[in-house]
Amino acid sequence: MPPGNIQSVAELLLCTPQDLGRRCRLAPLETTAIFNAVCNNNRPELVSLADRPDEPDCCTTGDADLDAALAGGFRCGMLWEVFGEGGAGKTQLALQQALFVQLPVAEGGLAGSACYITINSSLHTPRLLQLMASHPLLSSESCSLDDIQTISSPTIPILISILSKLLPDLVSRRAQNQRLKPVKLVVIDALADLFFGSDKASTGTLVERSQNIVEIAGLLHSLASAHNLIVLALNTTTDIFQTPGDREQVGPGDELQYKQQSRWFGAAASIPGENSKEASLGLAWANQINARIMMSRTGRRRFLEQGPSSKRQKVSETSSADASDALQEDWTMIRRLSVVFSSVGPACSVDYIVSASGISTLSDGDPTPSHKAQTMFFSQLPASAPQAPIPLASQLAPLDVGSVQDLAQNDADDYFESYFDDIPDEFYDNGALGDS
């Protein structure tokens, strides 16, 4: 039996010098010498990107500004996380990427195929067909549903089995067949759904969850590194509840709490309210990923011209109620994509919309640094108010200047007058507004 029951170099390096000395009954100087000798004789070999210049390294997203925000697009060999609230466009981005990875290298793709792993849903093939028909860079000649392999994983053991057995076999089999496109993208939609069960949180369940997260992340990193592919994991959000104690300064001897640390890597803060939610799965998962992207909905809208037959031209031909509905349909929801951290690029933010042709950014230049972003909000009116958004002109973002000049301002003024006219006189007589 080997000394201390240590049978491999990996097991030796996982021990602390104190533990090694205790198990082998060695002096501290002897254990230090052993560690130095093992490390000097087992140096890892660093692989430079220059050693494989002919192999593509990035896959385009189909949008130049979004590619710039991601430092060239989705880079191979990395574990990317995209998190956000429902309706932010996470699945849209994943579906779009499953098509762009099939494009030839000359067009920004990887000439590969995708493996789409679903948790609580199925692959939305109608949306894929719509993207292929609507996006100018995609076509049935360069993209096909045959090159998107999908499988469902409703439980953690099934996902581990897929990542350790089925997926490596699929990647190797397609890599050896010259007639098939190699797997270059793996999507998990959405990883957090596996860990939100009915079991109550306890020390045991949290430890088990951390172990499962580390095991899953290790398998994903092995696939990404061994086969130089992109791993895209979708994640959900949790609410952040601010307390007065969270704003207090931390002294030299004070313990740094998780809430005080997570604001640097758990969420973005490019616009007001964006930092009210953070990525789920906690610190154990945050330590496993190479890049974190946040997608969120904002309170902003923009009028986008729809051509000569725009619905806005029909407003004068309809009633006032129908005109408000028609005007609202012309306004497109603006969403926000923020790179929280990345090992290949700086943190930045861009605005985007989701249309029939996929995700398109609205930035007019370079991506906005997170700490210098500007924003515009619309007034929050009661349900009975006209639905046309009313901008706060003093908070217009550069992208929205000129897009809110043609709003029905008169209708808004009429609404406010009618709103206050409906307040009964007793409300003022009883001093409900307070006495100064």
TrEMBL record:
Q: Where is this region: Disordered?
A: 304-323
Principal localisation: nucleus
- InterPro entries, per this entry? P-loop_NTPase, Rad51_C, RecA_ATP-bd, XRCC3-like_C
Domain RecA family profile span(s) in chain numbering: 55-237
Instruction: State the UniProt keywords alphabetically.
Output: ATP-binding, DNA damage, DNA repair, Nucleotide-binding, Nucleus
A Pfam family reported for this protein in Swiss-Prot or TrEMBL: Rad51
Q: Where in the cell is it found?
A: Nucleus
Q: What is the name listed in the Swiss-Prot or TrEMBL entry for this protein?
A: RAD51b protein
Q: Which organism is it from?
A: Mycena chlorophos (Agaric fungus)
Question: What's the source species' lineage?
Answer: Eukaryota, Fungi, Dikarya, Basidiomycota, Agaricomycotina
